[in-house]
What does this fold into?
Amino acid sequence: MRRFLLVIAITIVGLIFISRLFYLQIYSEGVHDIFSDNALRKVYDYPKRGFVFDRNGELLVSNQPSYDVMFIPREVKPLDTTEFCRLLKIERPRFKEIFEKAYRYSPWLPSVFIPHLSKEDYASLQEKMRKFEGFYIQKRSLRHYETTIGANVLGDIGEVNDAIIARDPYYKMGDLIGKQGIETSYEKTLRGVKGLKVIQKDRFNRDLGPYKDGIYDTLPKPGSDITITIDAQLQAYGELLMQNKHGGIIAIEPATGEILTMVSTPTYNPNLLVGRNRSVNFSKLYNDSINKPLYDRGLQAMYPPGSPFKILNALIGLQEGVVTTQDRFYCNHGYSYGGRKMGCHGHASPLAMNGGIYNSCNAYFANVYRRIIDKTKSPGTGLDVWSEHVKSFGLGNYLNNDLSVGQPGKIPTSKTYDQLYGKNRWGSTFNLSNAIGQGEVLTTPIQLANMTAAIANRGYYYTPHIIKNIEGHTIDTKYTTRNQTTIDKEHFEPIIQGMFDVYNLGTAAGVRVNGIEICGKTGTAENFVKVDGRRMQLTDHSIFIAFAPKDNPKIALAVFVENGYWGARFAGKIASLLIEKYINDTITRTDMEDYLLKHTLEHEYAKPYSGQAFGINKNTTLEVVDEPEYKQLKELLNQLNSRSKKSPEFKKNQGANL
Amino acid sequence: MITEASKYYKFDWITILLFLLLVGFGWLNIVSASHVGETINYFDFSQPYGKQLMFIFLTIGLIILILAVESKFYERFSSVIYIISMLSLVGLFVFGKSVNGATSWYGIGGMTLQPSEFAKAATALAVAKYVSDLNTDLKRVKDQIAVFTIIAIPALLVLLQKDAGSTLVYGSFLFVLYREGISPIYLILLLMLIVICLFSLKFGSIITSIIITIGVLIHHFTRRRKPLLIQPISIILISILISFGVRYFYDNILPFHQKDRITIWLSLEKDPAKLERMKKTIAYNLNESEKAISSGGLTGKGFLEGTRTTGKFVPEQHTDYIFSTVGEEWGFIGSSGVVIVFILLFLRILHLAELQRSQFSRMYGYGVASIFFMHFFINIGMVMGVIPTIGIPLPMFSYGGSGLWGFAILLFIFVKLDSDRINQW
It folds into this structure.
């Protein structure tokens, strides 16, 4: 018996091995992955990336050829490196560095030697190319921006990283993908589908012809052109007016929810992120932590909305029946409650709703807000009802649209205060700041613009979106579906009249534009910054919301100018000018244009980093740009005006209104 | 009467043929796994395949030398050979050269020599010599301890040189001792130990303990002649101790890279994303090796046509992972053919061993078969993911002079011993 143990063990192991081989080689051999088989050369045929047009048919983004110098390390034969480096404009050590890195990656696989050669460099290299064995040129298509504006809208494309490749098998090393803006949100539409040719190689890396007669080969599908809702002229004008100021502008067409303008400043020229210098420029922009040019202030910045938010409180008061348009409230330079006082500026008293709005009376809205919250015995219920109304205007949550970035903002509920103070241990006076758009309320400019659009529409909005038309496709129905607010239509008229009077009698009388019935609301918002652990108050943000014309509104917008002080000082002027530009195309208030080009807020932004004591609000000064820069901006404005022409579509719409 | 002519036929030509078949085929695969570029100059001694060809020629010389020596020499001088071999292992601590973390080589000129490859044959000789001594009785504990010591010395020395794979090979002597009459309890205990360890790692110590307790108790109460209760209880206690001990060892003591190998082998990682990541990093070799074998299909891609082999996808492919080249280029037919040829060789050696009239020759033959088998089992098992990753060469196949000479010496001493039996027929 003893002599058979080893024999049996050997036989069993033999059987196990053969069955394992059977499993590996026969049973699971079917899953042959052509992409990881290095015996097959995969050649991709990249289709044309879709063009981008603005709403008036102006071409914004097209393509340009770019040439990558490729090489297969093992196939490189001795060459005149001095000449080669001179042609490629690189140093000798760099040559060695790139070569060795690629050799380590794989001696047999192609690597990029120098990406994105310019046309000129390519031309001089091309003639000599046959002298450099193992090197070859691969043509690729890069973006070409036909404009210098809208970097935050248009975005850019860049090479995929490992994380993307791991997530989506479509992308292979070296492929380009949208990185920001519409290039990201419409990546699949714009890029199309690349074609594939699988070619059998022999062990000497020679092509033997199509693999399995080309059953895996596919044809490329070109990317679709898209038209975006942006009005390039208006966008350029907005960006110009925002020069030397930080902030955001969002303009929406209320009847459709189409975003007309989406400005975020400081911005940059989108062509910086194309070609050979992309990574250098990108790091520069990325690392600018003071100006944050890659941060889209119109979409991502959450500010306290300030006084424009009062409009919502008035609407909610009417809807809940706790106040009528005739109810008057006293204001004694503010509103006193429980030993505290919410201040207000000087104006007539008492005020009914109309006067409350155009005077932006804090005391008036404190009263309204308390009535809303204290409608029932439980402030929790009151606050939640209030919160629901506010959220129905698209505030306090992501808009869920086709923009690559966004922020939810913040609208408190009873839970917020239960956590802060304990259940039933708070009342309307604990959060009275919500009445005037401070406190726990935070919104992004696009949310505020959308709120304005909903008011302009008298009670509904379309989700703000940037896509107008996709070649050969229809756009998502969620952009053509009305979102109804919880406020009944009839409550809007008195409020809109109040906003109209802001321009006639109130805080924005100075920024009036003759011939256009604009409704608006000024705002200022206190704000703080933390630098090196010290919390400092800065000059208030200048805020303005507006829509026009009063009946059949064409444009609704929100303007935020960081540290611009009061609403009409900067934001109001910008809003009025954009409205005039969009509706009339010619500017009558050139005095405001001049004012905006001339004045800078850069000194405000430098204050917290100066390390010195500084004054804010009343103690701040207004500074002008130096003469050469002013001239330059003026020149830009002239250029803009000379290019300005009304689109046929715009004229048609205007004609219908007359 | 022995004529001059019949002397050539006294060796077992079947064994020799199988050996040469494996060496030759192994070399072809080394060519595949190590060639670079378009041209192959088989005598380019700067390339692994060229060097290996030189090693093979040297091996043939070595074999002639071994067969020329009187067979009594091996039996008589086995103790001396063993002692010299052990000294060469000890010497590594002083003069050894470190390669990949293991201090297992002597550097002589431009060459390296790995004494542990020769220690296996020396140990096989010493064990055979000691047990075949008339004064030795394997039933006696004292003699058992002596034999285990002979085996344990080289096993521990190579373990200290961080060559855990070779240590395991010495475990194969258990087959030899079992054949010669050692109690089966050792094998049973070893088997139980392995089972308990694997169970504890895979299903946890508590479940394992419960199963052991129930099993032992059922066995105890169904026995007709019941021993004292202390016996099953102590078995249970020791098993539970081992179960928790191995768990503790795995969690807290085992070095990370070894722990990960076991984790992969037993699929202990629950998170599929993490497991996938582990496959791409620490189990990269295994993963690539399995893919290469798998891509071979039924007939393979052909000599020098293996795309993963040519692309150098499998690291260490011409040494420990040589079998993946066989799998890719020769397919299921070729690789199961190799498995069968190996098994035929082992069975042939065992068959010859049983025919030996001296206990020394028989034991030595068993030792040879066991050592070869252990290498075969661990190497191919590892390359196909049947057992956890343990670095050990595949006899006759893996690149390396020391390995090839070690295996040739091991085998041809037996061929020589066996030829004596034929001569005396």
